[in-house]
UniProtKB/TrEMBL annotation:
This is PLP-dependent aminotransferase family protein. In the C-terminal section; belongs to the class-I pyridoxal-phosphate-dependent aminotransferase family. PROSITE patterns: HTH_GNTR. The keyword DNA damage does not apply. Residues 24-92 form the HTH gntR-type domain. It comes from Streptomyces kunmingensis. InterPro entries: Aminotransferase_I/II_large (IPR004839), HTH_trans_reg/aminotransferase (IPR051446), PyrdxlP-dep_Trfase (IPR015424), PyrdxlP-dep_Trfase_major (IPR015421), Tscrpt_reg_HTH_GntR (IPR000524), WH-like_DNA-bd_sf (IPR036388), WH_DNA-bd_sf (IPR036390). Keywords: Aminotransferase, DNA-binding, Pyridoxal phosphate, Transcription, Transcription regulation, Transferase. One of its GO terms (molecular function) is transaminase activity. It holds the Pfam family Aminotran_1_2. SMART domains: HTH_GNTR.
Amino acid sequence: MTFSSDPPSAAWELLLPAASAPARARGRTLQSALREAVRSGRLAAGTRLPSSRDLAGDLGVSRGLITEAYEQLTAEGYLRSGRGSGTWVGEAVRASAPGVRDLAPGPSPDIRADFVAGSPDLSLFPRSAWAAAQRGVLSELPHPALGYPDPRGLPRLRTALAELLARRRGVVTDPERIIVCSGVTQAVTLLAVVLHARGQSAIGVERPGSPQYEELFATAGPRAVRLPLDGEGLDMTALRASGVRTVVTTPSHHFPSGIAYSASRRVQLLDWARQMDGLVVEDDYDGDFRYDRAAVGALQGLDPDHVAYTGSVSKSLVPGLRLGWLVVPDALADEIVARKRYMDLGNPALDQAVLARFIERGDHDRHLRRCQRAYKERRDTLVAALDAYLPGTEVSGIAAGLHAIATLPGRCGPQDTLLARLTASGVAVRPLSHYGGDAAGDRVPLVLGYAHLAPARITEGVRLLARAAAG
């Protein structure tokens, strides 16, 4: 990894002035700046640091200064290291200044345990492999490729994605039917704009489900119609009665309930689309992560003419790359491409070329295998901790993805009281009702995100959760 080829980081920028300090004070200044980056949260707990050689090259200082800084901060507890495993920001660093929070991601300065779902482990991002791909692209990319890109996306990336999606998810496509987007949000927005222009005033979405669709569709034209789920997937009676001709679904691993659509419900959904000459939008947001068996193939593979398939690297790599894809039926492709052209003139060509090379060289598959092992361990840790500290908790949903549903025992009290105690204890978590889910009698279903947390932090977080739940 080198600073010049990695995405800009506020943490590394903080070190640049220190690297320019007078020679006699440079070592102390670098240590102080690195210590402050950890304290302030610019370097989050669990972040893997560059090697001493790479960081020294980035900052233009001697490797000895970086090695000494790493050793000193490791001795102080700010960092941790292991033979052959690199150097990491410590998991239990507490800022010494009054009012400064523990170094855990979360929406509040008082968060001690953050179970809010939605993020992968950003520290697992393969910086070295990504930087190598960047260097390779910059050395081989011809000058004309730096002009305005094809609004559909770089042909090289669309070719790589077509092979990847066919191999890993069973998607039936070719490069001409793939449109590179700035994530799933842009993909769904493009579809909504085009479908509204064709006369569709409403689009169905799942309940419970992501709360973003009402506002997203409000800017695109159609209104969102919430449709309930049962234990097998989308309620077909409600779907037929709604009158919509397009519905957005997460059939491989529903968010947030955690179910996978049953085989019969998948067939029923496709039958509905054919009868209505409608469209199923398949959001395959974390389909690569299944821990107990092979992942269920994409719904799109069963009927490419009635399913639009979308996904991104936001869960498999990091959200900050803002790279995703939309696979559309032939009948919609030209209109989607036209809207994409006038929306943003296409995604950055360099980033697309880097992702293409990253996929072609097998780095993407290697990274997914690493994440698969890490996230499985974290889910197992979560289940074990709930069993140990909150016996009677029911963990539901398939063993997949980045979150689980934990329905707490009735003794934990009513939801409002429980959530107030959790907030006061510094535990950030959202109930299923936040996403439109129903209560479970006197038991409270919580949506627990775990992928972004190290196993030790998961166990400690559950312990805090249990203590708060006990009153």
